Amino acid sequence: MEDNSSDRRNAEFKADVAILAGGFGSRLKAVIGNNIPKPMALFNGIPLLRYQIELCRKYGFTNILILVHHLGSVITEYFDDGSDSGVNIKYMFEPVPRGTAGALADCSHLLADEFIVIYGDTFLDVDLRDFFNYKLAKSKLLTFVHPNSHPYDSDLLVLDSDGYVVHVFRPKNSGDTVYNNVVNAGLYVCNIDIFNNYVPPVGQMDISSELFPKMIRNGDSIQSYRSVEYIKDMGTPERYKRVQLDLLNGIPEVLSSRNLRRCVFLDRDGVINKEIGYLSDVSDFVLLDGVGESIKLLNQAGFLVICITNQPVIARGELTIPDLEKIHMKMESDLGLEGAFLDGIYFCPHHPDSGFEGEVKELKKICACRKPEPGMIFNAQREFNIDLKQSWFVGDHNRDIQAGINAGTKTILLSDEIQAGVRSDESFSTLFQAVEHILNTAGVDSDR
Fold first, then answer.
1. Active-site residue 269, yes or no?
2. Which of 126, 278, 312, 342 is the most buried (most CB within 10 A)?
3. pLDDT in tens, 14-64
């Protein structure tokens, strides 16, 4: 009797993960050569694609569809059916490249109703189970977002107050010079029907730049998932080298949700940007010299960098929250041009004293977030899983130092003068000097 069990298993196969591994990797050929496809680039002697497959298996996703094109046989021969890796792998060969959305539409019959999409040129250490479970039933698609060191040439997302995507753009194409550093990372949880409904049967379509706008115009929900877990595009020689260095220094593990994270909290005015009194006009925002390089060093060392700022101008009616957001967009975009980013920005809009013309009465109160109170630091601790004992607060005023002390962080005062009152752990003239001390204390080479 003929055994049809293999055919039956193939007929029943529905992938819970699709890996897009068909890219040509033209920019990487100088580094990896002409004989392997980009997803097979080696890190510590192991192909990137193996790291991705192991991550899927670790979080219980074992039915994997790999979409191949350029040098696809290198991938199929290496992984075969996936049994050696403890997973079940099928392959879909793209005879003609159809873009990220088009490729998925063509293999929709092999995909589960909801499935994860991973780009074959990203190195990631993300809790895929938490990510998958975060998606709400009303959402057609969940996308992983984060700040990165090159937002000007990335697909950026504009989110509403509930974290849903309302716009997608690329600054270098759109001409935008002020923006939030919210990058679409190329990691998704998708409903299969969006590919059946939106993707034409011929021609190319990209998920981020073409499918997203169609979905937004049609009113379909695209939900965001913001995390500082490690995910990086390695598709250029520079970024490939960066991922290699990060692996060597254990950065994916440092940023993992499995661990408490280290953070450097920064005051804003006088630490990140020039102090001009009460900043209320975005045109007056100017980064201090050396700040971009300083924050970049912290980013590369796996420290979170979070801005903590009092903004009593809001309570006094001198600045609206939308205008404050524009100032912070300017801060994020200027830092991005220097290869640096902030993981979070927290502000206190309150002020305890009344009597200002145009003041916002409901914001005139004593609160737990206005420095020297540690409320904003504690909020960040909960959101980002921060180890405060291994973290620092850097500020230029006693209230910053006291806030750090109250929260249990180590502290650095940026001042050429000794201020009466509380004593910081250290004192330096510039943020760069402070960052060198922090990295040296942590055993990190600041020239890395």
1. yes
2. 126
3. 999 999 998 877 788 888 888 899 999 999 999 999 999 999 999 999 999
